[in-house]
Amino acid sequence: MSPVDTLAAVPSESGHPAGFHQRLTRWNSRRLEPAVPGEDWLAQAREDAELIQVEGAWVERLRARAAPWLADLPDRPAEFVDWFEALKGGGPGEDDPLFPWLAETADLDQMRWFLLQEVAGEAGFEDLVALAQVRMPDQPKMELARNYWDEMGRGNPAGMHGPMLARLARHLDLEPRIETTVWPALALGNLLVAFSTTRRYAYHALGALGAVELTAPWRAAHVAAGLKRLGVGQERKYYALHATLDVEHSRTWNAEVLTPLADERPECIRSLAEGAVMRLLAGEACYAAYREHLWGPEQVLKSA
To answer: Which of 210, 184, 170 is nearest to 84 (CA)?
Structure first.
């Protein structure tokens, strides 16, 4: 099964994955956006009830498809953290050839298309962390708070990570739209939102977000190198920062979030692991879709 096919685990009655994830993305945008009461609240509540079930069915199908990656999952906390750290370089989508190509070969239009997909699928790491930390034990909650504060620029608006990415998008004249985004990029964002907004997946969220911190530096360094080669100046800071900062974030996440949770709540180990693997599988599908668009199907086959 190809990476894209793995991610295309939509319920059979929901149609093509593109339409399914466009609908989920619009729903997530509506339900997470601050609003005031309106007369359509009951219609929105009905939509919420329907899509919560549809979203859950999709996530459960992805859980089943992640199972082979968990065959050797240890149940002891220290061994679990070692297993988790081994996902770096060894998990789904790791060392994808797309990223050296972006660093060394992609032209500006190709880089802009890649970044357009990334911006459109961005779910807002700081918001996901804030949602996931609710009622977590004290030690993990403190580390999640420190991570959130870093994402917020430690109180300096110029250092906030979300606006930093937005500045790069403006500099490159990127205008992300749901309709022009490949569906795996939308699915990746939808998966992270599902984890962080649904309490039965709270540990999945922490595993998935920890996997982002663990694996992002290698990819971010290649994107930053490509942007530098193409003459992008200070606006590439978002990627340059994540190439270094996330190394420390990953170390403290594993020590202060994963380790104490595995020690105190060993029943959550599988959920932490599933969340990490599912996030990496979703990323792998994105990279495959990006390569098919940027390189063409024949070149993708040659690189497989």
So the answer is: 210
- The string of DSSP letters for 154-196 reads GG-GGG-HHHHHHHHHHHTT----GGGS-HHHHHHHHHHHHHH
Asked if residue 7 has pLDDT above 80, the reply is no
The Cα angle at residue 200 between residues 209 and 78, in degrees rounded to 5 = 55
Encode pLDDT of 123-159 as tens digits: 899 999 999 999 999 999 999 999 999 999 999 999 9
| DSSP structure string for 57-95 | HHHHHHHHHHGGGGTT---SHHHHHHHHHTHHHHSTTTT
Assess contact for 280 and 87: CB atoms under 8 A: yes
For residues 214 and 250, the answer to whether their CB atoms sit within 8 Å is yes
C-alpha distances (whole Å) from 180 to each of 36, 171, 185, 247, 252 are 30, 19, 11, 32, 37
Residues 206-245 pLDDT 10s: 999 999 999 999 999 999 999 999 999 999 999 999 999 9
Using DSSP's 3-state secondary structure scheme, residue 16 falls into: coil
- Asked if residue 172 lies in contact with residue 249, where contact means CB atoms within 8 angstroms, the answer is no
User: Minimal CA–CA distance to 250: which of 119, 150, 159?
Assistant: 150
Query: What contacts 193, CB < 8 A, 6 or more positions away?
Result: 28, 32, 123, 128
d(CA 245, CA 168): 18
Judged against a pLDDT cut of 60, whether residue 300 lies above it is answered with no
Residue partners of 12: CB distance under 8 A and separation at least 6: none
Report yes or no: 191 and 257 within 8 Å, Cβ to Cβ.
Answer: no
How far apart CA 79 and CA 73 sit, in angstroms, is 9
Contact indicator for 65, 2 with CB cutoff of 8 Å: no
Cα separation, 257 vs 212, whole angstroms: 14
